[in-house]
Amino acid sequence: MRLKEEGQVTVYGINYKDNPSAADQWLNALGDPFTRTGADVDGRVAIEWGVYGVPETFVVDAEGTIVYKHIGVLTDQALQNDILPLFSQVTQ
């Protein structure tokens, strides 16, 4: 949620095979870190993006190219060491 609050990047979420109303309730209860959230109810988007398991985090540049993929829970260490350094690259 810190990235959204600090306005460093735009963060989008995709609910994978979740009931959209249940996903909204979950995000409202626990805090919604996303600027916008989509629903992949049948898993097709995940297949197209090459998702192996959830959660996964993607860094996408201004042209829509995936420049980094993190598989698993996004820890503070992964955020600091792997993802934040990419932001200067993808925003140029």
TrEMBL record:
GO terms for molecular function: oxidoreductase activity. Residues 3-75 form the Redoxin domain. Pfam families: Redoxin. It comes from the Bacteria. This is Cytochrome c-type biogenesis protein CcmG/DsbE, thiol:disulfide oxidoreductase. It comes from Pelagibacterium halotolerans (strain DSM 22347 / JCM 15775 / CGMCC 1.7692 / B2). The lineage of its organism: Bacteria, Pseudomonadati, Pseudomonadota, Alphaproteobacteria, Hyphomicrobiales.
